[in-house]
C-alpha cells in the first residue's frame, strides 16, 4: 500500500513500506546492541533526538547520512568555541569579499550558515559518540539515486546487515522508493 507519492526529476514516485514477517517475538525488543540502523537527515534535529534515544536504549550501531562533509570544513572553524565563531562572522564576510570579489552577500551568508551547520553537526556527533553503541557519519547526497545505492551497499557490506532505516522526509531516498511505471 502506497504511503506517499511525489515527483522526482519529473517522474511520479510512490513510497511504500515492505512487510517484514520475522519481527522479534512478543515482548522482545526489535533492536539490540547488534542492530545496525541507517538514519538519513544527518545528525541534527529530530534525527539526532531519535538516534540518541536508540543509542541509550539499545547501544546499537547507527550510520548517519547527511549532506555535510565535515572534512571540507576548515579545522580552525570547527575548533572555535561558540563566542569566537559568532565574532568570526564579520571577518568571514570580509574574507569572502577578498577571496571572491563581487560575491553576493547572500552567497556568503549561505556559506557561513553551512559552517554553522557543520559545527552543530560536530557537536551532536560528539554527544552521540559519548553514548553506548557506535555512531558513524557519512556525507551522502540522498537526492542522488546512484550515491544512495552505493552508500547503502557499502554499509550493508561493512556492517553485514541493516536492520532499520530511519528516513527523514526526502522523497529521493531510494531504499523506500518504487518507481511507478505506466
Characterization of the model:
The chain has 182 residues and is of the alpha/beta class. The strands form two sheets. The protein has a four-stranded parallel beta sheet with strand order 5-4-3-6, sandwiched between helices. A three-stranded antiparallel beta sheet has the order 1-2-7, with no helix packed on it. It has a single domain (2-18, 31-179), classed as Rossmann fold, CATH 3.40.50. Strand 3 (36-40), helix 1 and strand 4 (61-66) form a beta-alpha-beta unit. It contains five helices and seven strands.
Properties at a glance:
about 180 residues; alpha/beta; Rossmann fold; 4-stranded parallel beta sheet; about 40% helix; disordered C terminus
Radius of gyration: 19 Å
Give the total of domains: 1
Helix content: 40-55%
Q: Which CATH class applies here?
A: Alpha Beta
Mean pLDDT: 84
| Measured distance between first and last alpha carbons | 17 Å
CATH topology: Rossmann fold
Q: Major sheet: order of its strands?
A: 5-4-3-6
Order of helices and strands: EEEHEHHHEHEE
β-strand number: 7
Helical stretch count? 5
Oligomer: single chain
Molecular shape? globular
Structural class: alpha/beta
**Biggest sheet character:** 4 strands, parallel
- Which blocks of ≥5 consecutive residues have pLDDT under 50? 171-182
CATH architecture assignment name: 3-Layer(aba) Sandwich
Q: What is the strand content?
A: 15-25%
Amino acid at each position: 500500500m502506497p504511503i506517499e507519492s511525489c515527483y522526482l526529476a519529473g517522474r511520479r514516485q510512490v513510497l511504500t513500506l515492505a512487510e517484514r514477517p520475522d519481527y522479534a517475538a512478543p515482548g522482545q525488543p526489535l533492536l539490540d546492541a547488534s542492530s545496525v540502523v541507517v538514519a538519513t537527515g544527518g545528525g541534527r534535529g529530530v534525527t539526532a533526538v531519535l538516534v540518541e534515544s536508540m543509542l541509550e536504549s539499545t547501544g546499537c550501531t547507527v550510520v548517519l547520512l547527511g549532506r555535510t562533509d565535515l572534512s571540507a570544513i576548515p579545522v580552525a572553524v570547527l575548533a572555535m568555541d561558540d563566542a569566537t565563531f559568532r565574532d568570526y562572522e564579520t571577518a568571514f564576510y570580509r574574507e569572502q569579499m577578498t577571496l571572491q570579489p563581487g560575491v553576493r552577500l547572500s552567497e556568503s551568508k549561505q556559506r557561513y550558515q553551512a559552517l554553522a551547520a557543520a559545527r552543530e553537526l560536530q557537536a551532536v556527533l560528539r554527544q552521540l559518540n559519548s553514548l553506548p553503541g557506535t555512531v558513524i557519519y557519512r556525507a551522502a547526497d540522498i537526492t542522488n539515486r546512484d550515491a544512495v545505492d552505493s552508500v547503502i551497499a557499502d554499509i550493508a557490506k561493512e556492517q553485514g546487515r541493516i536492520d532499520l532505516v530511519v528516513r527523514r522526509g526526502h522523497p529521493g531516498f531510494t531504499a523506500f522508493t518504487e518507481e511507478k511505471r505506466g
